[in-house]
């Protein structure tokens, strides 16, 4: 069975764990770096990116997370998780993990009163996806090897760059599991741990 | 079509706060300290609860200048308090663009009979509760997040524990109750039948529930998480302590790692003096903030 971790420092951890289990994979909350070792893929959930970053530094998660990215195993960032993955964050000198070839802007749809839900056309999905945007970031620009999977209102809100998948919205807040399914299918046979 | 202010958007914002600490701040400098320490949001107000308690008089919505100053200072969400039932304070805060409104018993109620009809607002609300009946009525009015009340400004965790245990034991009771007993339970609690059915089918409250009102140490915050809170509000506990930065960081870490007791021991070393606490029995009945709201 595929084992998928969810970084469990803060945020919508429970929803991601439930969605992963609903997709037929084993969901593993990750609170300590050692818990990254036997995973096939990792989700960085929505929450507050500044809080998660402080806890990442405090518990020396940064190098283990970058090592995880180096292995080529898939990583999926939703909202704050996308900010953590991005190679560049507008207005900040340094990125967080800096592994995904995109530049993001925080809170780029406004404050909470501007938060919204909308039906999105996403590449590879047969029907629209109802997406919840909460103080959401967006991708300002994407590198040449990044595939844009969805734009909304002229802004890139979902993209894939090699093993990294990122979106501005929160697929974990809805019962539509197609995006998590897509992510789980990114796990290649060579990276899958052998469990019987 | 883009839809704003839906239940999913309003409740979803609280879901993103889970496992986090929301800190009371009275100016931009405190807000920056809170953000740097890892707070998931700040609550902008004019006086922290312990000062409101000490000063007496009528406590109102903060001067909008303070709220604006805090909103400019940080990139994390900013919450602000309106008086119970004060439609205009709530609308003013919404117009200013605060991210969440706390219809709060910490302020002097503006209406002793009716709470705000929160479903009419685009901005989401958090409200206090002491039991499942209060939780049900606030959610019924449109609250998107709850916090157990505790006794604000005391630095004494006892009431926060009482209220969180009460809410959670009543939720468990409903979850394990036979379907045909729900209507009577609804009558007894002053909750709607539909609400109790929802709680039973979900196995929990339909919104995030934080703990508030008395958290003063990292161990207090971890205790509330242990008892099933989704996160904690810390009012006076941080900026009324001897070293706010240290307390703020330690409380954030203890909330994340609430079952790592060796870590909490480390975090709790050399923090300096916590806020001065108050024994609940020394507070006159009329001065207990938890009795406000119904």
From TrEMBL, chain A:
Its EC number is 4.3.3.6, 3.5.1.2. The active site is at 79 (nucleophile), 170 (charge relay system), 172 (charge relay system). This is Pyridoxal 5'-phosphate synthase subunit PdxT. GO terms for molecular function: glutaminase activity; pyridoxal 5'-phosphate synthase (glutamine hydrolysing) activity. Catalyzes the hydrolysis of glutamine to glutamate and ammonia as part of the biosynthesis of pyridoxal 5'-phosphate. The resulting ammonia molecule is channeled to the active site of PdxS. GO terms for biological process: L-glutamine catabolic process; pyridoxal phosphate biosynthetic process; pyridoxine metabolic process. It catalyses: L-glutamine + H2O = L-glutamate + NH4(+); aldehydo-D-ribose 5-phosphate + D-glyceraldehyde 3-phosphate + L-glutamine = pyridoxal 5'-phosphate + L-glutamate + phosphate + 3 H2O + H(+). It comes from Planococcus halotolerans. PROSITE patterns: GATASE_TYPE_1, PDXT_SNO_1, PDXT_SNO_2. Belongs to the glutaminase PdxT/SNO family. Gene3D superfamilies: 3.40.50.880. SUPFAM superfamilies: Class I glutamine amidotransferase-like. Keywords: Glutamine amidotransferase, Hydrolase, Lyase, Pyridoxal phosphate. GO terms for cellular component: cytosol; glutaminase complex. The keyword Cell wall biogenesis/degradation does not apply. InterPro entries: Class_I_gatase-like (IPR029062), PdxT/SNO (IPR002161), PdxT/SNO_CS (IPR021196). The gene is pdxT. L-glutamine binds at residues 47-49, 106, 134-135.
From TrEMBL, chain B:
D-ribose 5-phosphate binds at residues 24, 153, 214, 235-236. Pathway: Cofactor biosynthesis; pyridoxal 5'-phosphate biosynthesis. It comes from the Bacteria. GO terms for biological process: amino acid metabolic process; pyridoxal phosphate biosynthetic process; pyridoxine biosynthetic process. Its EC number is 4.3.3.6. Residues 7-212 form the PdxS/SNZ N-terminal domain. The active site is at residue 81. Keywords: Lyase, Pyridoxal phosphate, Schiff base. InterPro entries: Aldolase_TIM, PdxS/SNZ, PdxS/SNZ_N, RibuloseP-bd_barrel. It is an enzyme of class 4 (lyase). The keyword Lyase applies. GO terms for molecular function: pyridoxal 5'-phosphate synthase (glutamine hydrolysing) activity. D-glyceraldehyde 3-phosphate binds at residue 165. The keyword Isomerase does not apply. Belongs to the PdxS/SNZ family. Homohexamer and homododecamer. In the presence of PdxT, forms a dodecamer of heterodimers. Catalyzes the formation of pyridoxal 5'-phosphate from ribose 5-phosphate (RBP), glyceraldehyde 3-phosphate (G3P) and ammonia. The ammonia is provided by the PdxT subunit. Can also use ribulose 5-phosphate and dihydroxyacetone phosphate as substrates, resulting from enzyme-catalyzed isomerization of RBP and G3P, respectively. PANTHER family: PYRIDOXAL 5'-PHOSPHATE SYNTHASE SUBUNIT SNZ1-RELATED (PTHR31829). This is Pyridoxal 5'-phosphate synthase subunit PdxS. It comes from Planococcus halotolerans.
């Amino acid at each position: 069975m595929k084992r998928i971790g969810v970084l469990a420092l803060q945020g919508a951890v429970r929803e991601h764990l439930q969605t992963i289990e609903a997709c037929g994979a084993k969901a593993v909350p990750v609170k300590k770096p050692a818990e990254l070792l036997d995973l096939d893929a990792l989700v960085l959930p929505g929450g507050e990116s500044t809080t998660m970053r402080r806890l990442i530094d405090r518990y020396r998660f940064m190098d283990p997370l970058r090592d995880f990215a180096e292995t080529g195993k898939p990583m999926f960032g939703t909202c704050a998780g996308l900010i953590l993955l991005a190679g560049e964050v507008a207005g900040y000198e340094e990125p967080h993990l800096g592994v995904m070839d995109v530049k993001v802007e925080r809170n780029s749809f406004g404050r909470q009163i501007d938060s919204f839900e909308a039906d999105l056309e996403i590449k590879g999905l047969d029907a629209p996806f109802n997406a919840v945007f909460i103080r959401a970031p967006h991708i300002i620009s994407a590198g040449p090897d990044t595939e844009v999977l969805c734009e909304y209102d002229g802004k890139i809100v979902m993209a894939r760059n090699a093993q990294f998948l990122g979106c501005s919205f929160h697929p974990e807040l809805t019962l539509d599991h197609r995006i998590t399914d897509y992510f789980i299918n990114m796990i290649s046979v060579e990276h899958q741990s052998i469990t019987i | 079509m883009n839809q704003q202010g839906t239940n999913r958007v309003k409740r979803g914002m609280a879901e993103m706060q889970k496992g986090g600490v929301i800190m009371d701040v009275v100016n931009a400098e405190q807000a920056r300290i809170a953000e740097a320490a890892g707070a998931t949001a700040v609550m902008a107000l004019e006086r922290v609860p312990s000062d409101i308690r000490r000063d007496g008089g009528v406590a109102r919505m903060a001067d909008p200048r303070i709220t604006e100053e805090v909103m400019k200072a940080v990139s994390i969400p900013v919450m602000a308090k309106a008086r119970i039932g004060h439609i205009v304070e709530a609308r003013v805060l919404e117009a200013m663009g605060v991210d969440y409104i706390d219809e709060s018993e910490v302020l002097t109620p503006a209406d002793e009979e009716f709470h705000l009809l929160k479903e009419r607002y685009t901005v989401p609300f958090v409200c206090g509760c002491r039991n499942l009946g209060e939780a049900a009525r606030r959610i019924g009015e449109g609250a998107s997040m709850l916090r157990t009340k505790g006794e604000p400004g005391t630095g004494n965790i006892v009431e926060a524990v009482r209220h969180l245990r009460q809410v959670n034991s009543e939720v468990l009771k409903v979850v394990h109750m036979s379907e045909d007993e729900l209507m009577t339970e609804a009558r007894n609690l002053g909750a709607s039948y539909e609400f109790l059915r929802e709680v039973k089918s979900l196995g929990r409250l339909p919104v995030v529930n934080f703990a508030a009102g008395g958290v003063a140490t990292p161990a207090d915050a971890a205790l509330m998480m242990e008892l099933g809170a989704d996160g904690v509000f810390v009012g006076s506990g941080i900026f009324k302590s001897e070293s706010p930065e240290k307390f703020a960081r330690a409380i954030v870490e203890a909330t994340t790692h609430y079952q790592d007791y060796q870590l909490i021991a480390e975090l709790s070393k050399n923090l300096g003096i916590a806020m001065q606490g108050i024994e609940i029995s020394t507070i006159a009945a009329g001065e207990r903030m938890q009795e406000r709201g119904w």
